[in-house]
Amino acid sequence: MSDKPFLTDITELRRRARQHIETGAVTEGYRANLETVIKILNEALATELVCVLRYKRHYFMAQGIAADPIAQEFLQHANEEQGHADQIAARIVQLGGSPNFNPEGILSRSHSEYVEGQSLVDMIREDLIAERIAIDSYTEMIRYVGDDDITTRRMLEGILAVEEEHADDLSSFLADLDKDWKKGA
Ligand SMILES: [Fe+2]
Ligand SMILES: [Fe+2]
Hints:
By secondary structure, the protein is mostly helical. The protein has helices at about 5-25, 30-65, 70-95, 105-110, 120-145, 150-185. Helix 1 packs antiparallel against helix 2 and helix 3 (about 70-95) packs antiparallel against helix 6.
């Protein structure tokens, strides 16, 4: 499953990420926009929760592969994704909505996927793909929200910056591992 083509997946997930945003953009009236914002935020919440679970799995599995600095990074990312989930849930409540923590359907609401990964490189690659999806979907959300809800936008911008750091950390790890292998071969 982890050998699925990279571009096809991203394209499909981006399409899904845009679905509700497009519907919202054609809706007139404040209440309708608010509903869309809450819906988008619940999708972001699901995305973050899936990311927490994936990073936690990778943290515990990577310890067995003797990759302590990478395992520690997975744990740090898991904790930061949990922080994002909490921020988003709080904002949903502020907007008069209810955060959806129902485990049923969480993966279909999420923009990113839960891929376990068999090797350390697999795990890092899957996490990098998930981060890239998160970067794209947060970017879309920020553009959609625009100036209509500045507090939500600022929260999303803060999260986006952290997702970009995560992606950067992961691609550095991938580059290092690649170098080590070439040296060791
Ligand atoms: Fe996050
Ligand atoms: Fe992240």
